[in-house]
Amino acid sequence: MMSKVDKELIRQLVDGQISRHDARTLLRMENKDSERFAVYLEVLQTRVAWSDRILLRISDHLYVVSRHIDGQRVVKCDCGQEFGDYRCNWKTAARVRVKTSAAEFAGVYYPPAAAPEPEWNEIREFFCPDCFAQLAVEVVPPGYPLIFEVLPDLDRYYRDFLGLPLPDENPDWYQDLTVSRTTEWAAATPEQQS
After folding, report:
1. Is residue 33 part of a domain?
2. Structural domain count, the chain
3. Which portions of the chain are predicted below pLDDT 70?
4. Which structural domain range is residue 26 located in?
5. What is the pLDDT of residues 69-123, one digit of tens each?
6. How far apart are CA 98 and CA 171, in angstroms?
7. Residue 5: which residues within 8 A CB-CB, separation 6 or more?
8. Residue 18: inside a domain, yes or no?
9. Global pTM?
């Protein structure tokens, strides 16, 4: 029985190349070694060209990082594009394509009977403004607010679950600031908004 996970196995897991046997072994480990998350972050860090410290991966292309310049916690794409403070919904800084017609839905759903009804739904596709990687998709009623999928309590996670308190721990880190960002954007001039 494996007691500690090595970096190569984590790399295979991240790359989606892990064998079924090794995946089962990981799942069956009775005591997860405490260094596993640190090794996982180390593997992720080798895959990006920037030096900001990855604190948490939130999707295939997005990370919450601590910027090395000023220590701010921001959402960053693997290409280096920043989406701002991680406490604001990153989607407000992404490129968005909205699909609203049955013809557009047919390009995504097959068979057509599986598609949502255009009268009741729209498909929002979110892209990185720099590398154009698709970052997320929402199927929601028209006019529905952007879904803020994850606002992690990083201080609590690092302190209570990992036993590695972050040096800049502060209760103010864990709050949704999306409304302040959208309010500032709405008050800006058209030139400032683009």
Report:
1. yes
2. 1
3. 1-3, 31-34, 181-194
4. 1-47
5. 999 999 999 999 999 999 999 999 999 999 999 999 998 898 988 999 999 999 9
6. 36
7. 26, 29, 33, 36, 39
8. yes
9. 0.85
